[in-house]
Structure formats: C-alpha cells, structure tokens
Amino acid sequence: MTHERTVSIGHDHPSLAGHFPGHPVVPGVVLLGEVIETLRRSSAALSVTGLPLVKFSSPLKPGEAVTIHVDQDEAALVSFSCRVGTRLIASGVIEVTSGAVTHMEGV
After folding, report:
1. What is the side-by-side strand order in the sheet with 2-8?
2. What was the pLDDT predicted at 107?
3. What are phi and psi of 7, to 5 degrees?
4. Rounded CA gap, 54 and 33, in Å?
5. What is the pLDDT along the chain (107 residues), one digit of tens a residue?
6. The whole model's pTM is what?
7. The CATH number, out of the four listed (3.30.1360.200, 3.20.110.10, 3.10.129.10, 3.30.465.10), of the domain defined by the range 2-98
8. How far apart are CA 92 and CA 107, in angstroms?
C-alpha cells in the first residue's frame, strides 16, 4: 500500500518562533507529525509503535511544498520519504500494529 500527500508548513506555524530566528527551519518533529498524519489518513486502523530509523537529510524551510511518500511493504513496517522536488528532506521506517494511530502530543 502506497500513499502520497503534499503539505506546506506555513511561516506562521508556532514551532518556528524560536527555531533559528532569522533563518527558520521546520523542526523534525513537525515533519514527522505530518508523516504520521499521512499514514493515519491511509489506514486509521494502524497504531504507531516505534520509529527505528529516521534520517533528516536536508532542512525544510517554511512555505516549501514537501511531498510525503508512505509505503507499507510489511504488516509491521512502513517506509517513508519526504522530498521537495528531487531534494530528499527526510526518510525512515515506522513500526506499526493494528489499532488506532497514536497522536503525537503537541503536533
């Protein structure tokens, strides 16, 4: 099962206020929240149990359109990548089980 979603984190997002003033960068936890939201939209019957592999390759700036690609190869593992055009922003693996997706506090 493969799903894609394109999102943009606005310049007014509350997490940006202190995250490198003058040179704002979207925090990784905000981007991971969007990855989990993409997963939740594709299958509400999954619960996130772990993030065994996450790699941030390039900073995401506010206002950039990032495409999130989620691919569930196995029942318990979901791979993801986040790109702005051809530039890789982040990638990794999410562990899941059957049940409602866990919400990240504050995201």
Report:
1. 2-8, 65-71, 77-84, 87-98, 46-56
2. 44
3. -135, 165
4. 13
5. 888 999 999 999 998 887 887 889 999 999 999 999 998 887 777 889 999 999 999 999 999 999 999 998 767 899 999 999 999 999 999 999 876 544 544 44
6. 0.86
7. 3.10.129.10
8. 19
Residue with tokens 């981007």: 31
- φ, ψ of residue 2 to 5 degrees: the values are -125, 135
6-to-23, 38, 49, 52 alpha-carbon distances in Å: 23, 9, 24, 24
Residue 55 CB coordination number (10 Å): 11
AA letter at 69: H
